[in-house]
What does this fold into?
Amino acid sequence: KNEVEQSPQNLTAQEGEFITINCSYSVGISALHWLQQHPGGGIVSLFMLSSGKKKHGRLIATINIQEKHSSLHITASHPRDSAVYICAVSLMYSGGGADGLTFGKGTHLIIQP
Amino acid sequence: SAVISQKPSRDICQRGTSLTIQCQVDSQVTMMFWYRQQPGQSLTLIATANQGSEATYESGFVIDKFPISRPNLTFSTLTVSNMSPEDSSIYLCSVRDREVTEAFFGQGTRLTVV
It folds into this structure.
């Protein structure tokens, strides 16, 4: 069974700080997803990556396949970044079977002004 | 990308009643999933909604409790039947296309059973 571990579980920081959230998983995957969940419950997909690094605005995601580890970074953090950040992994789609995602428990991020 | 409209966004229901949640996608998608997120927990896959056939349920979830319909490639419903307070959760639908594995989610339905 694939396990997904995130750290830290909770993080409170001051506006402007550089934020790092970590995700480790236990078996081989085809893709890793970083998701953002706001208090209302809706989820937004931030990144999907299978190797290397991706950047979107102030967000950067990296993945090391050999070490089974990924990080999500937020530069120049802002109170509107306050949310739950969830790491999820997916298996390669193959043949007639469909597979969902295995989720981490999430990191609760609060950015104080 | 896919835009998903999920409704209702929240509801408060009486014990023993049923609630049907709708998920509408703006394009045809291969895979649709229903998830449950209990308070303070991560998301758990309930089932895969299959177009034109019975849904595929994960261990611990049964059709009688969570009947699912998927009449076409853009629409699905999840019903939470005979509700109890333990069913209080956020329920989310998610879609992925066969060729692209990025996942898209609805806004979630926050259900409280009293």
In short: The interface with chain B takes residues 30-31, 33, 35, 40-45, 48, 86, 88, 90, 93, 98, 100-101, 103-106 of chain A (CB under 8 Å). The CA atoms of residues 10 and 108 of chain A lie 5 Å apart.
